[in-house]
Automatic annotation (TrEMBL):
Main localisation: membrane
Topology in membrane: Multi-pass membrane protein
Subcellular location: Membrane
Name of this protein: Predicted protein
Compositional bias of kind Gly residues: 166-177
């Protein structure tokens, strides 16, 4: 069953009256803009499945080989070079072979949308439309009553905007008073001419609208209102986060405004959850029925109460609340404004399922598994959600997974480059196996046999070695050093990925917040398994963005279409054709479906590729280059100061 995140209206809600705070025109144009953004999001989901997949080039015995695609590109791009010729290939004329496959491309493209992918597309869109419908309905339910204002001073008009055309609600009333316009539009909607953040605008193109020309405070207020409405759905999904970022660019607001808004809401809600849950725990036994009723008749029923910690961070105050009264802010948040249970669930604070018990569930499936905060608990394992410092709480999570370790104490070292906009954790999993793998890889690359074998691979390309299954004798001699530890690591990575998926979708370790995943080597393999499990269980709306580096997993497009179906934001494949160690280690797997860590993903719309041009220590380089890669791909939450210091 598809995950029911964000789809429920949780009963009838009383309309929130924002008369005098925003105008009818501003509300109507806000609804129009949110509808346009969410429609684009729906199209993006559909496009993931509608893009024609790339058909691999036909090799021996009728097999279609994804590994031959880079070889063809290599030949076409460097046709005059002989230093990297396709030595030893049984099909030396790849261009001719490629032409022969054109006859079957159309047939295979029609068959590419397997019944499983068609069903996945259908369910992903059904889930999204349910969430979209709830969001739009809640924005439409905001009440803004018509106000009479002196002529020439229509409330809520942006700077430089002219009067509304006749016939659009601007007709006069007696006594020199005018009716509020139904829209700010005086012509075709436009996009901002000068973006405050061009990088973010390139990634989330602004939707043409009229609201961007309002003054800064009014645009901040509109973003704030939508933020509160989305939180009133009692969960903050990856779709909600993508909507807010797109709204930020469409309103031409600096990303710092959105981040600051997310930060103060996270800290206010987290503190309120802990404070109110403590009060509730004291009175729960003696006043169980009274307490239950207190939550039921809270803000959603219009009492106008607002939890003190929320007021403490400026929600519902004249200045930081951007003009929203406590009553208005409480109404927008609904029952989330003072409901300890709902606020706690947002952060994974669940009285019936303490964090320690959740961790016990993990350890039943895998011997060594835990989450270590990058910021907030000085390297201690995350054991009790109530003990995590409020000042480090965020409304989104980043979970990082290492793929090998060179020293026991290096579990968090590679990930200190992660910034503080997200609540970041490093997954501790199978430390002994990862340390053994790291040691064996380091021993192998320092050997003379590896240097000799590497030179021979460079003369042929790693792809020809994989396709032909012919490897330098020197490498085969040292294979016993690394093959066993790699095989053990692959098995453990798949188990860890399944446990991580369970922690996210069933144990609710992260609460009801979007999760981003980052990993390299076997850590990326664990993420691959996690996403496949989430797709199989139809767990949409949980995963925000994902980056996988040096991934030992297939590069076949239909695999990555499946992965992208559960990733709302960016899905980035980081690869390098120079990762000879990965190619050699992966040789015993089914290479007919390609190797993601060696080549770009083709035929999967929405999947980004980033090529690492230099790996000084081969596959081992990913551990030290995490920060540089994150910076280069434009990952939004990376500490650039730490990256610069690490160079």
């Amino acid at each position: 069953m598809a995950r029911g995140r964000g789809g429920s209206s949780h009963g009838q809600r009383r309309p929130v009256d924002l008369t005098g705070i925003i105008s009818i025109a501003e509300k109507n144009d806000l609804v129009t803009l949110i509808n346009a953004i969410t429609e684009r999001m729906a199209r993006d989901i559909s496009n993931v499945f509608d893009s024609p997949p790339v058909v691999p080039i036909q090799g021996d015995h009728g097999h279609h080989h994804w590994l031959m695609i880079p070889l063809l590109h290599h030949r076409q791009n460097r046709s005059t070079s002989h230093s990297h010729s396709l030595i030893g290939l049984k099909h030396p004329n790849l261009s001719k072979s490629f032409e022969k496959t054109r006859e079957i491309i159309e047939k295979e493209e029609q068959e590419a949308m397997t019944p499983q992918l068609r069903e996945l597309k259908k369910e992903a869109l059904v889930f999204f439309r349910k969430w979209q419908s709830t969001v739009l309905q809640r924005i439409r339910d905001i009440a803004v009553n018509e106000q009479q204002t002196p002529q020439g001073s229509i409330r809520g008009r942006g700077r430089g905007m002219r009067g509304a055309p006749r016939g659009r609600g601007g007709g006069g009333r007696g006594g020199g008073m005018t009716r509020s316009p139904l829209t700010l539009a005086t012509g075709p909607p436009r996009a901002p001419s000068n973006y405050v953040d061009r990088d973010l605008a390139a990634r989330y193109p602004p939707i043409p609208n009229t609201l961007w020309s309002l003054d800064l405070d009014k645009r901040k207020l509109l973003l704030h209102i939508v933020f509160l409405v989305l939180l009133s759905m009692q969960e903050y999904t990856a779709n909600s986060r993508q909507l807010l970022v797109s709204l930020t660019t469409s309103l031409n607001l600096p990303p710092k405004i959105y981040r600051d808004e997310e930060l103060r809401l996270a800290q206010g809600l987290a503190k309120a959850a802990i404070d109110l849950s403590s009060e509730d725990a004291v009175s729960q036994k003696s006043e169980e029925s009274k307490s239950s009723r207190r939550w039921k008749v809270g803000l959603g029923c219009g009492t106008g109460k607002l939890a003190a910690p929320l007021s403490g961070v400026g929600i519902g105050t004249a200045h930081d609340g951007l003009g929203l009264t406590p009553y208005a802010a409480a109404g927008l948040l609904g029952s989330m404004a003072e409901n300890a249970t709902q606020m706690g669930a947002l952060f994974g604070i669940i009285a019936s399922k303490p964090t320690a018990k959740m961790m016990e569930a993990f350890t039943r499936e895998i011997q060594d598994f835990g989450f270590i905060p990058v910021h907030g608990l000085d390297g201690s394992e995350y054991r009790d959600a109530r003990e995590f410092p409020v000042e480090h709480r965020r409304l989104s999570l980043t979970i990082a997974l290492s793929g090998f370790l060179l020293e026991d104490e290096e579990i968090t070292k590679s990930w200190r480059c992660l910034g503080r906009h997200s609540e970041s954790y490093v997954t501790r999993w199978e430390v002994a196996a990862l340390t053994n793998l790291g040691s064996s890889l380091e021993t192998a690359i320092k050997s003379s046999a590896w240097k000799e074998g590497k030179a021979e691979i460079e003369a042929r390309t790693i792809f020809s070695c994989l396709i032909e299954s012919t490897w330098p004798v020197a490498l085969l001699k040292i294979s016993k050093i690394i093959d066993n530890t790699w095989s053990v690591g692959m098995v453990r990575a798949e188990k860890a990925g399944a446990v991580l998926a369970d922690a996210i979708m069933r144990q609710k370790f992260q609460g009801d917040r979007p999760v981003s995943l980052i990993g390299y080597s076997l850590g990326a393999r664990a993420i691959y398994t996690c996403l496949m499990v989430l797709a199989e269980r139809r767990q949409f709306g949980i995963i925000d963005s994902v980056i996988m580096m040096g991934t030992p997993a297939p590069s076949e497009s239909r695999v990555w279409l499946t992965l992208k179906s559960v990733v709302c934001g960016r899905l980035i494949n980081v690869y390098s054709e120079q990762d000879y160690i990965l190619g050699f280690l992966y040789r015993t797997s089914n290479t007919h479906f390609g190797v993601a860590g060696l080549q770009e993903i083709q035929g999967a719309d929405g999947v980004e590729n980033y090529r690492v041009r230099s790996l000084p220590r081969g596959h081992l380089s990913y551990q030290s280059q995490v920060g540089v890669v994150l910076k280069n791909v434009g990952w939004e939450d990376v500490s650039r100061d730490i990256v610069r210091a690490a160079k």
